[in-house]
């Protein structure tokens, strides 16, 4: 019998990885910045990440999703990673966590 992996536990590991990736223009990780809208893990350990950027003209529009995909896919339990970029709803500072706002001196 193969080892069963808890998808909730895997989701937490994915979030930990996401918190190591920073927006190059803002010194806050992409998760706390509110760029990650959702993370889905299915029973085959395929991951889908729904994310946005701070603006449609973001200079890392090509490279940031690929960096995220590669880092999440490096987790042993992850089979595959699909990235979906959306601008609906558009990113705003309201999506930032309290931690991010504090880091940026907005509180």
**Cα distance spanning the termini:** 51 Å
> How many DSSP H or I helices?
3
What gyration radius follows from the Cα positions, in whole Å?
Answer: 14 Å
Spatial order of the strands forming the largest sheet: 1-2-3
Shape annotation: globular
The multimeric state of the shown protein is single chain
The CATH homologous superfamily: Fe-S cluster assembly (FSCA)
The CATH topology is GMP Synthetase, Chain A, domain 3
Q: Segments where pLDDT lies below 50 for 5+ residues? A: none
Order of helices and strands: HEEHEH
Mean pLDDT: 91
CATH class equals Alpha Beta
CATH architecture label: 2-Layer Sandwich
Share of helix among residues? Answer: 25-40%
Q: Please give the number of β-strands.
A: 3
Structural class: alpha+beta
Pfam families: FeS_assembly_P (PF01883)
Protein name: FeS assembly SUF system protein
InterPro entries: Fe-S_Maturation_MIP18 (IPR052339), FSCA_dom_sf (IPR034904), MIP18-like (IPR002744), SUF_FeS_clus_asmbl-assoc (IPR014291)
Descriptive notes:
The structure is a single chain. The radius of gyration is 14 Å and the shape is globular. The chain is α+β, with helices and mostly antiparallel strands. It has a 3-stranded mixed beta sheet, with helices on one face. The termini are far apart. InterPro entries: Fe-S_Maturation_MIP18, FSCA_dom_sf, MIP18-like, SUF_FeS_clus_asmbl-assoc. This is FeS assembly SUF system protein.
Secondary-structure topology with pairs:
Layout: H1 7-18, E1 36-41, E2 46-51, H2 63-73, E3 80-85, H3 98-103
């Amino acid at each position: 019998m193969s080892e069963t992996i808890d998808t909730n536990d895997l989701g937490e590991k994915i979030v930990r990885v996401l918190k190591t990736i920073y927006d190059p223009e803002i010194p806050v990780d992409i998760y706390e910045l509110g760029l990650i809208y959702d993370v889905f893990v299915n029973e085959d350990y395929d991951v889908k990440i729904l994310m946005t950027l701070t603006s449609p003209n973001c200079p890392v529009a090509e490279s940031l999703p690929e960096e995220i995909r590669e880092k999440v896919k490096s987790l042993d339990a992850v089979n595959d990673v699909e990235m979906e970029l959306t601008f609906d709803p558009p990113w705003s500072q309201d999506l930032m966590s309290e931690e991010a706002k504090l880091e940026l001196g907005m509180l």
